[in-house]
Amino acid sequence: MSGVITKAIVPAAGLGTRLLPATKSQPKEMLPVGRKPVIQYVIEELADAGLGQILIVTGRRKRAIEDHLDSDPQLVAALRQAGNESLLTDMRFLEERARFFFTRQSEPKGLGHAIAMGADFVNGENCVVALGDSIIWADPPSAPLQAMMKAHIELDAAAMVVVETVPEADTFRYGIVSIAGSTPPPGEPVRMTDIIEKPPAGTAPSTLAVAARYVFSPLIFDALARTPADHRGEVQLTDAIRQLIHMGKPVYAWALPPDQRRYDIGNLESYFYAFIDFVLADERYGYLVRKYIKAKAYDL
Known about the structure:
The chain is built from 11 helices and 13 strands. By secondary structure, the chain is α/β, with parallel strands linked by helices. The termini are far apart.
């Protein structure tokens, strides 16, 4: 097995019902956050981390994702002819830094099922999984993933999972992990002892929630193949990871440091917060928006 990880799977087949009506005719991964759609942040993070082959698992009514990631020589030529360097910079994600592959999950059979569809693509290598509806805020955005991949190879891990601390009242919304010890050191791997998908309120073993980025060995595909569907007919990735833990395989949690965070574009509230934060940080328009918000605050 190669010591360099070059492949990533991006699940992007979810229906996005919690973001209706905005997602009635467009994928939630294509909702703009500032000047870019959500999935573009994810793709740029992966490409900057050196992942040159990216499989995107889409679903029905997701064709806009393929169109956005397709090369557009005519558009680039027109921008170049017009001398529009700023927009050319914005279109940098279309450069030949990564090759995109697509497959479709036609039925909503769960995140685990979507990832299992990438088994042939990964072909026995280590791989990254990055959820297409979550953005990592870091400087640079690829820093956590690069560090995780390095640690995954050095430790010969079966899995490396990003976690973040969430309020205890919200633990029922996430996959929640238990670790060896009480508090994970930020930016370092710590052995995971258990994981449970969306525990009932008041039963969570910790407040450490899975945060949309993973590094896996090929063992994950064997575990997914053995994982039965739940009562909704979905194969849960957390159940497959739990299998690896209970088999004694080395599974690690990776806590994001305080200056890094995950933005989950999972509902309208979290989407609004993400949009505001990214616009305020925009190097081109952030200053103007900050002035507007300060002026608007007097009316609130």
